Automatic annotation (TrEMBL):
Superkingdom, natural source: Bacteria
PANTHER family with a match to the protein in the record: FUMARYLACETOACETATE HYDROLASE DOMAIN-CONTAINING PROTEIN 2A (PTHR42796:SF4), FUMARYLACETOACETATE HYDROLASE DOMAIN-CONTAINING PROTEIN 2A-RELATED (PTHR42796)
Protein name, UniProt field: Fumarylacetoacetate hydrolase family protein
GO molecular function, one term: hydrolase activity
Secreted among keywords: no
Recorded family membership: Belongs to the FAH family.
Originating organism: Sphingomonas zeae
Occurrences of domain Fumarylacetoacetase-like C-terminal (ranges): 72-277
Keywords noted in UniProt: Hydrolase, Metal-binding
Any Pfam family hit: FAA_hydrolase
Gene3D superfamilies named in the record: Fumarylacetoacetase-like, C-terminal domain (3.90.850.10)
InterPro entries referenced in this protein's UniProt entry, alphabetically: FAH, Fumarylacetoacetase-like_C, Fumarylacetoacetase_C_sf
Coiled-coil annotated spans: none
Length: 281
């Protein structure tokens, strides 16, 4: 299934994408795409519905984040071999973990704000993993059974805030609007091997990133198991699994985003995002 949320910001409703690419409204009684709705039992209730019986959503509504109110937005750094190389950094011995604030989460096609004082706002296309089953101290063999589905995440990053201002990476990663998520959550049965997905990103039509999740240093299963050693993973949590080579920081000379530019990105089977860059008010 391809599950989504549509409508005005903070008033989104849950829906699904049918085989003809039309949005169908899910019954309001099922609630939002969050928490228990993303468990195996919750997804089974949706899967039992006949999409043809659900109302078609007319027009071209705004899409919200495909997961409502994620309890945790855990991100992984330096998880592609070629990206570590372009960053002139060694392959990490363990996953590099940081977080995004909840105010970073926006819809896949919403505007992205360049923060006040920013000179180094950068792009990063990433595979997002949505947790569906609660788990702690998971083994790698158990990990994928705790995944509800996958989505596109744009891990927008401010490199000066991240790398030159002291402290942790988080303040360069969690700025408002720095986590476009969606367009839809694709359940695991439709994705297959998460280590065999092409992902790409363009700025104003120029392709900068074009790679595969096969280049990950730590696989999805390894990452889910690893993060679960430090916190309990809950349904609706998101783990963003790192970006491939081709970020702005890695260009020679570096290239950064400016207001008015358009960014388009996508992952095989998971859809595309398009964002306009705007100056923060």
């Amino acid at each position: 299934m391809k599950l989504l949320r549509y409508g005005e910001m903070e008033r989104e409703r849950a829906g699904l994408l049918d085989d003809q690419g039309r949005i169908r409204a899910l019954p309001a009684a099922l609630g939002d795409l969050a928490g228990d709705r993303l468990t195996p039992q919750g997804l089974a209730e949706i899967a039992a519905l006949d999409p043809a019986t659900l109302p078609v959503v007319e027009g071209n509504p705004r899409l919200g984040s495909c997961v409502a109110r994620p309890g945790k937005f855990v991100c992984i750094g330096l998880n592609y071999r070629a990206h570590a190389a372009e960053s002139n950094l060694p392959i990490p011995a363990e996953p590099v973990v940081f977080g995004k604030w909840s105010s970073a989460v926006v819809g896949p096609n919403d505007d992205v704000e360049i923060p006040r004082g920013s000179e180094k706002t950068d792009w990063e296309v990433e595979l997002g993993v949505v947790i569906g089953t609660r788990g702690r101290y998971l083994t790698e063999a158990e990990a994928l059974s705790h995944v509800a589905g996958y989505c596109v995440v744009h891990d927008v990053s401010e490199r000066e805030f991240q790398l030159e201002r002291g402290g942790t990476w988080d303040k360069g990663k969690g700025c408002d609007t720095f986590g476009p998520t969606g367009p839809w959550l694709v359940t695991v049965d439709e994705v297959g091997d998460p280590q065999d997905l092409r992902l790409w990103l363009e700025v104003d039509g120029k392709r900068y990133q074009d790679s595969s999740t096969a280049d990950m240093i730590f696989s999805v299963a390894e990452l889910v198991a690893y993060v679960s050693q430090f916190c309990t993973l809950e349904p609706g949590d998101i783990i963003s699994t790192g970006t491939p080579e081709g970020v702005g920081l890695g260009q020679k000379p570096p290239v950064y985003l400016r207001a008015g530019q358009m960014v388009r990105l996508g992952i095989d089977k998971l859809g595309e995002q398009t964002q306009r860059m705007v100056a923060a008010g």
